Amino acid sequence: MDETNSRHRFEAMYRHTYEQILGYAMRRCSSPEDAADVVAETYVIAWRRIGELPRGEAGRLWLYGVARRVLANHRRGERRRATRHAELTAEAEVLYAMPSPRTGADEVDEAMNLLSDDDRELLALSVWEELDPGEIAAVLGCSRNAARIRLYRARKRFAKALEKTRPSMPRLEARPLIEKESR
Amino acid sequence: MNNDQIFKNRARVLDEHLAGRASTAGADALLAEIVLQEREQEPARRRLMPSPRRALLGLAAVAVLTGGFVVVPSLFKESGQVYASQAVTIDRDGDWYVFYITDGDPDPAELEKAFRKVGLDDITVKLIPVSPQQRAPVVGFDKTDPDARMSSTLSDCGERVEGCLTAFRVTADIKGSAQFHLGRPAKPGERYAYPADASWPGEALAGVKLQGRSVAEAVQVVRERDLRVAYELDWPLRDGGDGVRYEQGVPASRIDPSWKVATAETYNDGVIVLHIEPGAGATPPPGF
Question: What are the transmembrane regions (chain B) (predicted)?
Answer without folding.
Answer: 55-76
